[in-house]
Amino acid sequence: MPSRDATTHWTGGLQKGSGEVTLDSSNAGTFSVSFPTRAGNPDGQTSPEELIAAAHSSCLAMNLSGVLESQKLVADSIDVSAEVTLGPAAGGGFEISGIAITLRAKLDGVTDDQFAEFAKTAEQTCPVSKALSGTTITLDAALV
Question: Whole-prediction pTM value?
C-alpha cells in the first residue's frame, strides 16, 4: 500500500508566526496555517484539526461503502461530517478533546438497526478512526 505525505514550512513564533502546509503526494494544494486562526476564527485558513476532520470523514465514507458492499449493498449516497475539537490538555498545552461524527446515508432495503450496525462496524474498522483511538469519537448515524 502507498504512503502519502505533506510538508509544512513555518516561520516565526507561535502567536505571530505562520506557515503553509503542502499536500505533496496529490499536489492538490498549499494551505495557510497559523495558531491564531487555529485557536479562533479560521479566516480562510485551515488547521490540523480541519485536516484531521477531512481525513476522518472521507475515510469513514469509503469504509462504510466497503462494509455495505461486503453485504451486497450499495448506498445511493453517504454523507459524513467530522467535527474535531481542540481543547486544553491536563498539564498544559492542547489536545484533540473529541471528534463528533455525523453520518447520513440513503440506502434502501435495510432497517435502522441494521444500518446502525453497519455504521458502527465501519467506524470501528476505519483506519483513521483506529489512528485516532486516543480521543473520544462519537457517532451519530442514521438513514435519510
Answer: 0.94
